[in-house]
Amino acid sequence: MPHIRLHPRKSDAAQAVAKEVADLIRLRSKSGLKTVLGLATGATPLPLYAELIRLHRETGLSFRDVVTFNLDEYAGLPPTDPHSYRYFMEENLFRLIDIPPSATHVPDGLSQDFQKTCAAYEEAIRLAGGIDLQILGIGRTGHVGFNEPPSAADTRTRHVRLDEMTRRDNSVFFGNQEAVPHGALTMGVGTILEARRIELLAFGSGKAEIIRRACHESPNADCPATWLQRHPHCTFHLDPDSGTLV
Ligand code: F6R
After folding, report:
1. Out of 31, 89, 153, 235, which residue is the most buried by the measure of CB atoms under 10 Å away?
2. Ligand 1 atom 2: residue of nearest CA
3. How far is Cα 46 from Cα 88, in angstroms, rounded to an integer?
4. Ligand 1 pocket: which residues have CB below 6 Å?
5. How far apart are CA 50 and CA 48, in angstroms?
6. Per-residue confidence at 100, pLDDT binned at 50, 70, 90?
7. How far is the CA of 31 from the centre of ligand 1 (A)?
8. Nearest Cα to 76, choosing from 195, 198, 191, 159?
9. Residue ranges of the alpha helices (H) in the chain?
10. Inter-axis angle of helices 46-59 and 10-30, to 10 degrees?
11. Residue 1 — pLDDT band, cuts 50, 70, 90?
12. Taking all residues of the chain, what is their mean pLDDT, rounded to a whole number?
């Protein structure tokens, strides 16, 4: 079972995770070490990113010693497309903190050779020393990153087809479902499980059932988030609505 933290409100969850991130960055910076963060996009991490920006502005938290790797990117979208995850990260975090642009990594959705691009992404994570702390959301299909069912525990960064439920859920950002790409590049479940610490956030009643499955089903490829049960340092941060069935 992952460790479950039920927070009174999603803002409390965001503050708690932001504090964990900030404490880790400060501790490692003091010893001259970089901190490697794995980052997610979507609606869920927005209050976390807002809190990190506030800590940067109001308490001097610096991201100069931080390296980031995002979980995923839509296939076929250029970084300048407002729906791309690179654009999302620039708008909602990177341009608002002092992280060096060269230290931020998002898979290249425009790659003409997905296999090569994905292998290079894995290698870049390895060369950076591995991910110290991974932020995750969860999709209603049970995906983490874009590891749609079925996804095995040993999957690596690769090109995937998005589940129709995911395309429907993400159509809120695109205006209509037809505009949502059919494919994406995503870190694999195996890549995610190698992070030294995982903080998953889930908010709202729409996530209650998948959180129940992720916590109580035995690990299986049809609900990829169940693989997180095998991680020794994984915490689920829930609000009262997403935590009703745990
Ligand atoms: C995003 C990602 C996805 C989302 C998930 C939940 O980078 O990897 O797994 O975390 O689809 O999305 P929201 O937060 O919009 O409900």
Report:
1. 89
2. 145
3. 10
4. 40-44, 71-72, 137-139, 143-146
5. 5
6. very high
7. 33
8. 159
9. 10-30, 46-59, 85-92, 114-127, 164-174, 189-193, 208-216
10. 50
11. confident
12. 98
Global confidence as pTM: 0.98
On the question of pLDDT at 116 being above 90, the answer is yes
37-58: per-residue pLDDT in tens?
999 999 999 999 999 999 999 9
Tokens of 50: 């807002």
Kindly report, residue by residue over 136-192, the tens digit of the pLDDT: 999 999 999 999 999 999 999 999 999 999 999 999 999 999 999 999 999 999 999
Contact at 8 Å (CB) between 182 and 161?
yes
Distance 130 CA to ligand 1 centre (A): 22
Overall residue count recorded for the chain in this entry? 246
Q: Which single residue is written with the structure tokens 């970084």?
A: 79
Tokens 């995906």 -> residue: 143
Tokens matching residue 48: 């976390």
Q: Whose CA is nearest to atom 8 of ligand 1?
A: 145
Only one residue has tokens 């479902």, namely 177
